[in-house]
Design a protein that fits this description.
Elements: E1 12-18, H1 23-34, E2 39-44, H2 51-57, E3 61-64, H3 73-83, E4 91-96, E5 99-101, H4 105-115, E6 119-128, H5 135-143, E7 149-151, E8 158-161, H6 162-167, H7 179-189, E9 193-204, H8 211-231, H9 241-264, H10 266-273, H11 275-285, H12 291-319
Parallel strand pairs: 1-2, 1-4, 2-3, 6-9
Antiparallel strand pairs: 4-8, 5-9, 6-8, 7-9
Length: 330
């Protein structure tokens, strides 16, 4: 990889992806237009709510993915990158259709990319639009509050150099989750860098109001951890190794050990079971047992069971040579 050439007046485009986002999609596309992005590509994954027509009315170039091939966010983003190949932009804003772009983000991110030729991607602060709606939404908002500075990965929203993305083959289209960390890993191996800025980037509408949605989202994360670790298991980076081991320890190995010991040594089984309330207390203590800290500690601990389910699901499907479909939570 060689550093990107200087750009005096970089060309911009945006790729938005979505499925049945409704009014959220209109707000997303309106925010991109308000940011002055001249070309917007919307890639639709089988919506039944009129999203393609809605996007066209907002002035976006609309692509509808072939229904005969399983949908993934990676596949949708790649379709957007391919659509831009006729007149490749210098920079491309990636965004999910349930997000809106923060005013001023494009200017801040563009200036930072231009000043640092080795940066492939910059991202900023993604915020949950309605954290007051549920504890699950608040957990999402906290999850996205990651450290500022050099980063190993970005999320679904980011400003990137088009040439950098395409130079590593874009996203891995067969990944049903975890496609951004996978892309960033390949970019870093090629000599590129990723950075998170202290700037507002997007507002997201998770719309998680039920426990079942929270569980499916955590199960999807567990699948992503296991698949990402398996795919790059021979690499020196330890990609998703710690996340996978943590999920399997707390969500599978320890419960299994407790069940085995229960008829043999009930006292020891009960003692091991205390590890879960102890973990909740340890996590809650980080925030002086505030309400937010308590609910976060409980949900993070519960999420390990769902993550373990997702990890086992990936490996079971791998051994059966079966493809896992999307794990959607809304």
């Amino acid at each position: 990889m060689t550093a990107a050439p200087p750009l005096d007046a970089p060309t911009l485009a945006a790729i938005a992806i979505g499925r049945n986002e409704g009014a959220r999609l209109t707000a997303c596309l309106d925010s991109l237009r308000a940011a002055g992005i001249p070309r917007i590509v919307y890639v639709d994954s089988g919506s039944t709510d009129g999203s393609p027509a809605q996007a066209a009315a907002c002035g976006a170039q609309v692509l509808a993915l072939d229904l005969t091939t399983p949908f993934t966010a990676a596949r949708a983003r790649n379709a957007g990158l391919a659509a831009l190949a006729d007149a490749p932009p210098d920079l491309v804003q990636l965004i999910d259709g349930d997000c809106t772009l923060a005013p001023g983000w494009i200017t801040t991110a563009t200036q930072h990319l231009l000043a640092h030729p080795r940066l492939a991607i910059v991202c900023g602060r993604r915020r949950e639009r309605h954290p007051e709606a549920s504890a699950y939404n608040r957990l999402c908002d906290r999850e996205w509050d990651t450290p500022i500075g050099p980063a190993t990965a970005c999320g679904g929203d980011a400003l990137a150099r088009y040439q950098a993305l395409t130079s590593v083959g874009g996203f891995s289209p067969d990944l049903i989750a975890g496609e951004e960390p996978d892309l960033c890993l390949r970019l870093r191996r090629d000599g590129w860098q990723i950075e998170r800025l202290k700037a507002e980037m997007t507002s997201h509408d998770a719309a998680i109001t039920r426990f079942g949605q929270f569980w499916r989202r955590a199960r999807r994360a567990g699948h992503a951890f296991a698949e990402g670790h398996w795919r790059h298991r021979h690499g020196p980076e330890g990609h998703f190794r710690r996340e996978t081991r943590r999920a399997l320890l707390w969500g599978a190995a320890l419960p299994a050990l407790i069940l085995v010991l229960l008829p043999l040594s009930p006292g020891l089984a009960a003692l091991l079971a205390l590890a879960y309330p102890a973990q909740i207390l340890r996590l809650a203590a980080r925030e002086s047992f505030s309400r937010s800290g308590r609910e976060t500690a409980l949900l993070l601990t519960l999420s390990k069971f769902a993550e373990a389910q997702g990890a086992f699901g990936f490996h079971l499907s791998r051994l059966r040579r079966r493809r896992v479909g999307l794990i959607e939570y809304k």
